[in-house]
Amino acid sequence: ASRVLVLCLDAAALRACRFANQEPQLCADAHDWPASSASKLTALALCLRRGVDTMWLDSDALVLRDPFSVLETLQLKGGAPVVGTPDSESRLFFSIEGDSWNCPNAGVFFMRACREGQHYLAHWISLLLDRPVHHDQYTLYLLLGLVPWMDYEAFAEREGLLRGERARTLGPLRTPRWESLDPTERFVMPHEVTYGGIAPGKSRQVAIFHFLEGWPDCCRPQPLYDDLRASGLDPITVILKGLDGDPAQQAVAWHLVRRSERDWQA
């Protein structure tokens, strides 16, 4: 059975989690851990070490349906991406930007408990610790060679990914086979950003709605929820409470989700 482990990095978060959670033992006391994305990756590595397939969700990711029941990915068929069943050989599954299925987002991803995943996380954590002012998303782009105009061969040589001290300690870097989670119906982002949005009429099919609340308020290209923010309301909280309320409140919550529907063909 699936379980939700909540990583609590301070005492207030731990108290709130234990108060609200029907299984308070799943509120992980990590208040002595550094409040950084290194703790995020370390927690994931510990889960994999125990043989647990793990989906990481940032705290601004809304769970609208059981994600494991709709773990669908993008695949390339006939020269075009289509939604299909995950490849049984894949070990890593990233949410992605809806307009480019090769731009992963480290706020929502799934890893199978395997040696390849643990090995890859070790390199990810190691590079992040060398860059304390960076975050896990940028470090992932470095690992995958997705930073624009980067010379990946020179980067791998300089960082010792294939040979040198890092490779001797962790083993040479081997990127696990990975796939892209369906970004327009199942694992979506809000249409407040240009690469986000839900396919028309598919809001009820969404499993994970990653709200991207880390975006500065001044810089959202399409501020769909600024009416709530201007009233001192948190869109995530409003939606969550609405979905847990009476039918009228649920209707309001789904209306807010539908604000992010867009025509991806336009």
What does this structure look like?
- The protein has nine helices and eleven strands.
- The protein is α/β, with parallel strands linked by helices and 266 residues long.
- The protein is globular, with a radius of gyration of 19 Å.
Quick description:
Helices cover 33% and strands 17% of the residues. It contains nine helices and eleven strands.
Ranges where pLDDT stays below 50 over 5 or more residues in a row are none
Residues in helices, as a percent range: 25-40%
Radius of gyration: 19 Å
- Strand tally is 11
Largest sheet: 6 strands, mixed
Strand order of the largest sheet: 3-8-7-9-5-6
- What order do the helices and strands follow? EHEHEEEEEEHHHHEEEHHH
Number of helices: 9
Kindly name the structural category: alpha/beta
Measured between the Cα atoms of the first and last residue, the distance is 40 Å
Question: What is the typical, i.e. mean, pLDDT?
Answer: 90
Fraction of residues in β-strands: 15-25%
The best one-word shape is globular
Keywords:
globular, 9 helices, alpha/beta, 6-stranded mixed sheet, 33% helix, 266 residues, single chain, 3-stranded mixed sheet
Topology:
Elements: E1 6-8, H1 11-20, E2 27-29, H2 37-49, E3 54-57, E4 61-63, E5 73-77, E6 80-84, E7 92-96, E8 104-111, H3 115-129, H4 136-144, H5 152-159, H6 165-170, E9 178-181, E10 187-188, E11 208-210, H7 226-230, H8 235-243, H9 247-258
Parallel strand pairs: 1-2, 7-9, 10-11
Antiparallel strand pairs: 3-8, 4-11, 5-6, 5-9, 7-8
